Predict the structure.
Amino acid sequence: MTTREPRSSHPSLTPSQLYRTRDGWIFVMCNKDKFWPVLTVLLERPEWADDPQFASYAARLRNRDRLTRLLDEVLMTRTTNEWLERLSGKVPVAPVHDIGQALRDPFVAERCGVLRYRYPDGTEARMLAGPVRVPGAAPPRRAAPALGADTDALLADLGYSAAQVSDLKRDGAVR
């Protein structure tokens, strides 16, 4: 059974989890043998590559807690953006954004991940676009119906009479 691991870590690979930086968090993943020595050099800790406690996947996993502390110490010396500039393209890394940062991310904008929706009353809201994309088809651009907009039709389809629906609304069971 798969369980939730601390810091979104991979259950059998390390490093492959969230690490602290000076101003936030970064996800670092050494999912291939070639990445660990590269990471150690970029972190200015090349001696870790040959350290028996860290030299193999199994050794790093056995010593995950210690390695996590050491990586946090090093990664906390710079900001997330500084580490991204240094590591990107050499080791799999990604920033960890808060909601506001995620919504302003250029990748999200490029994918049209946040769209403006207009309600029938003319008000407008920015909301996440559906994540599923189909080539040649644009994501839906309509707002969700107002709460209760389809209640009468839905309950009628289920066999409720107009009087029963009225009673349910009066009692506050539905809108």
The mean pLDDT is 90.
